[in-house]
Specification:
The complex is a heterodimer. By secondary structure, chain A is an all-beta fold. Chain A is built from no helices and 12 strands. Classes of the chains: A mainly beta, B mainly beta.
């Protein structure tokens, strides 16, 4: 079974600074997708960034980028120029390409990292 | 386009009762997944539906069940509620099944069991 581990329950960053959130995962599959989701307080969870395992190039979305190390099974999120609106719980998630031969939308989540942004 | 809606947003039930939660996906979306979020266990997958068929199920007891209707709306039911069922229940919708399709989450239903 696949597992996702986020070892940093809480992180803090100064506004305009850069912060990196860590995520490791375990899987025997060779093809899969990884995601970072953001859950602001009392607001809906939204997708921040996604990474296809077969792509060596790290994904980037504006101020958000990932460092994907497939061999090490590591998937960290870097937030540059942090803003007050970045304060939220961040979840790393894993998704198989197939589930017993069929497509699946099932996400396996880590325990989350609560990010605080200091003004 | 309206987002994923979940009703009710808050619910208080007594141990032993049953509860039904509803999820209306984004218009046109055919896939709905459900998750339970608790401080202790985090986010756990309950089940997913596509075209009215359950495609995948998480490791939850049989007290947890769900269904999807022809208009893609989905309901989940929990019978014989236990205190440990207190959680935020999230649903997510997707246009189709498969990783090419982004999932959009609803605001959740906060269930409190007393």
């Amino acid at each position: 079974a696949q597992t996702v581990t986020q070892s940093q329950p809480e992180m803090s960053v100064q506004e305009a600074e850069t912060v990196t959130l860590s995520c490791t995962y375990d899987t025997s599959e060779s093809d899969y997708y990884l995601f970072w989701y953001k859950q602001p307080p009392s607001r809906q969870m939204i997708l921040v960034i996604r990474q296809e395992a077969y792509k060596q190039q790290n994904a980037t979305e504006n101020r958000f980028s990932v460092n994907f190390q497939k061999a090490a099974k590591s998937f960290s999120l870097k937030i540059s120029d942090s803003q007050l609106g970045d304060a939220a719980m961040y979840f790393c998630a894993y998704r198989s390409v197939n589930n017993y031969g069929g497509a699946t939308n099932k996400l396996i989540f880590g325990t989350g990292t609560l990010l605080a942004v200091q003004p | 386009k309206a987002g994923v809606t979940q009703t009710p947003r808050y619910l208080i039930k007594t141990r032993g009762q049953q509860v039904t939660l509803s999820c209306s996906p984004i218009s046109g979306h055919r896939s709905v997944s459900w998750y339970q979020q608790t401080p202790g266990q985090g986010l756990q997958f309950l089940f997913e539906y596509f075209s009215e068929t359950q495609r995948n199920k998480g490791n939850f007891p049989g007290r947890f069940s769900g269904r999807q209707f022809s208009n893609s709306r989905s309901e989940m039911n929990v019978s014989t509620l236990e205190l440990g069922d207190s959680a935020l229940y999230l649903c997510a919708s997707s246009l189709w099944q498969g990783v090419s399709y982004e999932q959009y989450f609803g605001p959740g239903t906060r269930l409190t069991v007393t």
